[in-house]
Amino acid sequence: MRSILFLLIFGLTGVGILVGLGTWQVQRLSWKQAILAEIETRIAADPVSLPAGIDPARDKYLPVRVSGEIEPGELHVLVSVKQVGAGYRVIAPLLTGDGRRILLDRGFVAASRKADPRRTGPVTVIGNLHWPDDRTGSTPENDVAGNIWFARDIAQMAEALDSLPVLLISREEVPAEPSVRPLPVDTVGIANDHLQYAVTWYSLALIWAGMTAYFLWRGRARSESRGT
């Protein structure tokens, strides 16, 4: 009886802990979905003028409309687009009407179009300010000399193009540059694995409960066989 009682307590405790972890992940899922909804609403809001004082924490995802001039010189960030393949993000210097030079992420070009000339000069850009975190532990260092970038390191790109550390990701250029496919800001790249974690914890709880029931049944069967 003591062994059966121990198995029962051990099993129920384990199930309780695993169910609790699963429930916590469900709560985290609701929290993350609310954040993503807020970000999506902010991204899609009506564009405003570029703020006089730009704050990365306050102005992340801020939709803006900027008129100015795309200057010569661009950086190429290696990227892959689904159903298209490998290519590059084109990062160009944008001199705004008030004399500030910022970074402009114009969008995607295929690898074969990397060296093609692209329109510069007067432009109006509608897009979102962003400070992306592309770098992971396995991301190579940027080849600045060869102009092949593996991450959008804002400070490093700003130094290379003599601009402010501000990145505007284009949603639309007027006039348009037909050779560049805009890659607007969205929430697709923001991790939200809480549902998978919840399913994993609940599955483990179910397995734990099944194993507990099995060991209880086997222990009871042994006790009964000894009694006979």
From TrEMBL:
It is found in: Cell membrane; Membrane. The keyword Lyase does not apply. InterPro entries: Surf1/Shy1 (IPR002994), Surf1/Surf4 (IPR045214). Signal peptide: none annotated. Its main location: membrane. Pfam families: SURF1. The keyword Cell membrane applies. The chain crosses the membrane at residues 199-217. Keywords: Cell membrane, Membrane, Transmembrane, Transmembrane helix. It is a multi-pass membrane protein. Belongs to the SURF1 family. This is SURF1-like protein.
